[in-house]
Amino acid sequence: MKKGIDVSRWQGDIDWTKVREAGIEFAIIKAGGSDDGFYTDSKFEKNYKGAKEAGISVGAYYIVGSKCVSRIDGVSDANRFINIIKGKQFDYPVYIDLELTSPADKCGTTDACIGFCQTMEKAGYYCGIYASDISGFVDRLDMSRLTQFDKWVARYGGKPTAVKRYGIWQKSSNGTITGIAGNVDINEAYEDYPTIIKAAGLNEFSKPEPVPQVKPPEITKKSVTLIIDDHTYTGLLDEQ
């Protein structure tokens, strides 16, 4: 298990060195969204740079607005997300943040999530879905259609119960961490995302070159005839 946080402009200016010294190993950083027009989070660049320089692993998220209720909407938001994060490396997943759509649009919202994630994957990203355990994944999404996607689940006061498999649990919204003024979301990760992502060459990392296989020495056999004390012996000997 690794301890992490997620941050946006609401956390203000962060002292990332102090955050690392406080034991934080990863941060999921808000890149932007479509919940208030289409925008880039005003602290995204600074948070990305600061976390990287402090040696903290990073992921990113993009919050979609209440009108993201069709596959076309999800694809469009994914392309906006890609334009914000392109050129940057993330050793944690990149996420669609789903919390503002109406439960009445459950089918269309699920279509949007699938379109979003598939667009991100096609562009070479490890993409997942962030939502609340009940009000998100149960009320607003059809989980039976989302089994192939990684999940980051919010539930406070106890671990998720509706979502059975998830990579990150957002366990609190009122954590206190040295280096951050005010409250911050606290998370636990249960997958070794940096190893998974780098080994697959995703999130703008280059896939490692395969290790050359060393061939064992070839063994050849020779036919040999020996005469010892008037006895003749014939057989095969291995030659290396």
Task: Explain what this protein looks like in three dimensions.
The chain has one domain: Glycosidases (TIM Barrel), CATH 3.20.20. The mean pLDDT is 93. The protein has helices at 16-21, 44-53, 71-85, 106-122, 193-200; strands at 2-7, 26-33, 39-40, 57-63, 94-97, 127-132, 150-154, 168-175, 184-189, 220-228, 231-239. Helix 3 (71-85) runs parallel beside helix 4 (106-122). Strand 10 and strand 11 (231-239) form a beta hairpin. With 240 residues, it is an alpha/beta fold.
Question: SSE layout and pairings?
Answer:
Elements: E1 2-7, H1 16-21, E2 26-33, E3 39-40, H2 44-53, E4 57-63, H3 71-85, E5 94-97, H4 106-122, E6 127-132, E7 150-154, E8 168-175, E9 184-189, H5 193-200, E10 220-228, E11 231-239
Parallel strand pairs: 1-2, 2-4, 4-5, 5-6, 6-7, 7-8
Antiparallel strand pairs: 1-9, 2-3, 8-9, 10-11
